[in-house]
Design brief:
alpha/beta; OB fold (Dihydrolipoamide Acetyltransferase, E2P); Rossmann fold; 7-stranded parallel β-sheet; globular; binds adenosine-5'-diphosphate; binds magnesium ion
Amino acid sequence: MTEKDILSTEVKFLKGVGPMRAEAFKADFGISTFRDLLAHYPFRYIDRTQFHKISEIVINNTSVQLRGKITKIEKQGKGRANRLTALLNDGTGTVQLVWFQGVKWVSQKLILNQEYLVFGKPVLYGRMVNITHPEFERVEAGYELSSRLQAVYSSSDKLSSLGLHSRNISRLIENLLSKVRVVLYENLPKSIIQKYKLISHRDALLNIHQPGSYDEINKAQFRLKYEEFLFIQLQLLEQKIIRKEKVSGYIFQNVGSTFNTFYSQNLPFELTGAQKKVIREIRNDFKMGKQMNRLLQGDVGSGKTLVALMCMLIAVDNDYQCALMAPTEILAQQHYNSISKFLEGIDVKVELLTGSTTAAQRRELLANLESGDLNILIGTHALIESKVVFHNLGFVVIDEQHRFGVQQRAKLWEKGRTNLPHVLVMTATPIPRTMAMTIYGDLDYSVIDELPPGRKAIETYHYTDSKRIALFGFMKRQIALGRQIYVVYPLIKESETLDLKDLNDGYNSISRAFPKPDYQVSVVHGQMKAKDKEYEMQRFKNGETQIMVATTVIEVGVDVPNASVMVIENAERFGLSQLHQLRGRVGRGTEQSFCILMSSYKLSNEAKTRLNAMVESSDGFEIAEIDLKLRGPGDLQGTQQSGILTLKLADIVKDERILYFARNDAKEILSSDPKLEKEENKYLKLFLQQNAKDKTNWSLIS
Ligand code: ADP
Ligand code: MG
């Protein structure tokens, strides 16, 4: 093994690890090599010089660090029921330490009349301050002289049971560092190091694990976060460059008769400036001879679908076929309806393919697709089945893309004959810029940042159940004005039966409050047959029913301009982007629209923040930012499949600034040295190669 590869050594070969601990490291933290173990960064540091006085402890759900003598140790109960209590006295007062687990281990470590550092969360138990399962460490002779800050590592049940608590993980890493410190080479170019006054890669790793001061920790964290972001951005942007260089694409040179006829005769309104801008961007891509991969962001109702349609017409004008893939059958159906209507009188053949297309229809459709008679195929997942063969697929639009897996998208691309088709990915609701940069950093980016004119801002209110009578009154007045209303119930996979019960109860109470024949009420939920759903949707669309009671099946894309009120029941159970998406179902016509968020009276702080954000803001980009801050990147739709979760230290919310630095630097580096061949980028390249081996394959993300 060459010196350079030592960091790729399996952890089981590190002294003190062995096969069992190695397996636990792998299973619980994905750590398999020395390199991985070095990136198991501490999540906290104990400052061994900062202590609380026991007499001054305030019970407020925060942890404290104490230093005192153990004055009493007591074991209670036998066998499974045993527990250990100990008293700690620091001269100002006494607290009781309690253990229910690991009693044997603790009782071996805890010695009467010796001095300890104790860290944990105090609670009041009777009149005694208690700390359950505190971290503790004996203050030994000469202790003061060793480093002030002690790193604390996360462990797991498995690792703990194998003797690897934080303290022992710390020892392992200490040992590893002394062994490999000579190969922790610099991995950034000089210019970058100077620009941010960075400490060296080696010092960063040494200091993050064995810091001498908080200042050292901060510098180490900054450097390592920057590295993390920079390497991700380099890989994403490299991917983009490779695609632009190597992956050739169809050239759509002409704007022809279908586009022009549509534009001059069928388009019922002016395009917004933002729509025109995006169409120009895409049109430009179509001429480059390279495969387009573009992300289109825009708020709900900003007119993304129309942009997609007009770009499809350009492809059709150049004799290529197009596919539009939507995540649900209802949405696919709706795209089909609205696109067919838009194209009335124009010679473009559009078909719909979903799970409920009959065998006979399917046979004919597939034949027309293969012969090239069909121009635009709209559908759901059904589009990616292997039986679906295009004559010459040139352009693929993927709507509300976060619902599709990476593989599904890749499959659709493969349907191009000689080249990969151009791809336009549209998001349902905006995602924050930092997230787009990290997940879709290798795609080109367009944004529609303008709503069609004449839209009135939707008025949003938050009510609790006590206002229900008033709500019904309001709904009746709106219906009297000729408007229609959605009432939506949450649908959570784990308890579909419960949700259905909520929905049915709601439907019954609404049917009582809005009796026939004055009122007609529709109901739609996920467990209905597609045909029945469609029937009910159609009745509502036609204005035959005034109220649509539904689960979130109507969330995506349903378009009924006359609907002006959206009532969301149990609104506290929805995520922010979902609430915003639902609200976007109204406000599509010219009338003033309303969104009423119903919730119970008692709410968590987070739920309050969410509902407030909805009341205060109607800007999808702003709401996406708040959502990201509330939930963190891990929970957001679409991130599961991305590399965001593999970030060890950096956080796209807290470290947004560093991400922007890294993004810009990566762009600059690659624009002057696309293949990283310059001497100054030598280490960067080496580091990328060594790390790429066992990391996520970034090229799969788009
Ligand atoms: P998105 O998919 O971005 O949520 P849609 O494409 O469904 O939005 O458009 C929302 C509604 O606005 C549709 O009824 C569409 O026909 C209409 N629309 C699109 N562009 C314009 C425009 N420039 N002016 C007026 N209405 C528009
Ligand atoms: Mg849409």
